[in-house]
Amino acid sequence: MVPSTSSSPAVRGPVLVVGGAGYIGSHTVRHLEEHGVPVVVLDNLSTGHRAAVRSPLEVVDLADRERLAEVFARVRPAGVVHFAAKCYVGESVTDPSKYYRENVLCTWNLLEAMRASGTRDIVFSSTCATYGNPVRLPLTEDHPQVPISPYGKTKLHIEHMLQDYSRAYGLRVAAPRYFNAAGAAQDGTLGEHHEPETHLIPLVLQVALGQHKEITIFGTDYPTADGTCIRDYIHVEDLADAHRRALAVLQSGTTELFVNLGTGTGFSVRQVIETARRVTGHAIPTRIAERRAGDPPELVSGGRARWTSSDGNRVERASRTSCAMRGASCAPIRAASTAPDARRALRVPFRCAHGSRPSRTCTFDVLARRTRGNSAREAEGIGVRGARRG
Ligand SMILES: NC(=O)c1ccc[n+]([C@@H]2O[C@H](COP(=O)([O-])OP(=O)(O)OC[C@H]3O[C@@H](n4cnc5c(N)ncnc54)[C@H](O)[C@@H]3O)[C@@H](O)[C@H]2O)c1
């Protein structure tokens, strides 16, 4: 997790966090509140947890359009962050109806409620699963989106809906495509709780806690250095921060923002297990199983992105860094507040304040170029990226 710097774009509330009782949603709710943004959570608690929410909670199903309209009329949200979805890839193959209903239809209900109440801004949880099998790595935003599971397809349908609603009805939409969310709150009071749990890191830690006797590795014959799959794990508190920044970008006039959210560095299943062994001191026994269908060998985020906007002529950059001296405050030496070209600015090398050549530098940038006088939706550039350079 990368410590925050002082650069914190303001967000107008109240923000309706849909699915805010779930894993990423509850961390985002907490993060927004810590930044003084009033929040109301809307969740049907199907996979979320009441105990994870301290803000006002509306227990409502997105399928219930009447209740949804009533909440919008009462809360009058200035923006929406939408996490609610069914998210099991395997289940989406065996029961696609559930995924089209819960993901596509329910999001349509939400967008209609927004339109009816005049709420313009929405940040939607998209996923690298919209890309399907990588034809090149790292996965940049211009990689073809050919999802291979109904889960990924429903998320891509929603991205298209958002674009169409933005263009036709003036909604301002952001769809960060997450790679693998991971981690817990630094104070240990909020973590990850899925049932069933399918994510590697919590499963490995459950073995260390004695809750399972071993961790299953699905496939050791992938074309990777150690034969196991490589994934890009991004800390959940960084995701939370990215949502707040994305909402701020929309509120400052950007109309569409489709960006990857990953660290740019992949770790193999074996590397994760090794790290957990080292940290916990537990042997963490493993069991080798066949590959699972539909698991690409490697999914790692690239940092190039696109956005569109209607006005302005400014590059805004918010960045934060950490280095090998974790926990110490660390500022980028080159943190231009303006840059002539957002894409080029993305490639500015970051160096931290603790040495001219830090061994590890993490950056998280939000760049927004706003060009005055453009036709409404001329393509421009934005990057939201976490990058780790050796
Ligand atoms: N966890 C990851 O690694 C990851 C990666 C990429 C994308 N995503 C996306 O991020 C989002 C959040 O993921 P998560 O891991 O926090 O999931 P989660 O299951 O923990 O959270 C989803 C929340 O939405 C609520 N919900 C579901 N359907 C609802 C409905 N019809 N009406 C109201 N509330 C409803 C659930 O009760 C839950 O609180 C999902 O959209 C997922 O597709 C997650």
Q: Which labels suit this protein?
A:
single chain; about 400 residues; alpha/beta; Rossmann fold; UDP-galactose 4-epimerase, domain 1; 3 domains; twelve-stranded mixed sheet; 9 helices; disordered C terminus; binds nicotinamide-adenine-dinucleotide
Task: Record the SSE blueprint.
Layout: E1 15-18, H1 23-34, E2 39-43, E3 57-59, H2 65-75, E4 79-82, H3 89-94, H4 96-117, E5 121-124, E6 126-127, H5 150-169, E7 172-178, E8 180-182, H6 200-208, E9 215-218, E10 230-231, E11 233-235, H7 236-251, E12 254-261, E13 267-268, H8 269-280, E14 286-289, E15 298-299, E16 306-309, E17 314-322, H9 342-346, E18 361-370, E19 379-389
Parallel strand pairs: 1-2, 1-4, 2-3, 4-5, 5-7, 6-7, 7-12, 8-11, 9-14, 10-15
Antiparallel strand pairs: 10-13, 12-16, 16-19, 17-18, 18-19
Helix pairs in contact: 1-7, 2-4, 4-5, 6-8
Nicotinamide-adenine-dinucleotide is lined by residues 19, 21-25, 43-48, 61-63, 83-85, 87, 102, 106, 125, 127, 178, 180-181, 194.
What can you tell me about this protein's structure?
By secondary structure, the chain is an alpha/beta fold. It folds into three domains: 15-183 and 233-261, Rossmann fold (3-Layer(aba) Sandwich); 200-231 and 265-298, UDP-galactose 4-epimerase, domain 1 (Alpha-Beta Complex); 306-389, no CATH class. The protein has nine helices and 19 strands. Helix 4 (96-117) packs parallel to helix 5 (150-169). The structure holds nicotinamide-adenine-dinucleotide (NAD). Nicotinamide-adenine-dinucleotide is lined by residues 19, 21-25, 43-48, 61-63, 83-85, 87, 102, 106, 125, 127, 178, 180-181, 194. Residues 19, 21-25, 43-48, 61-63, 83-85, 87, 102, 106, 125, 127, 178, 180-181, 194 line the site of nicotinamide-adenine-dinucleotide.
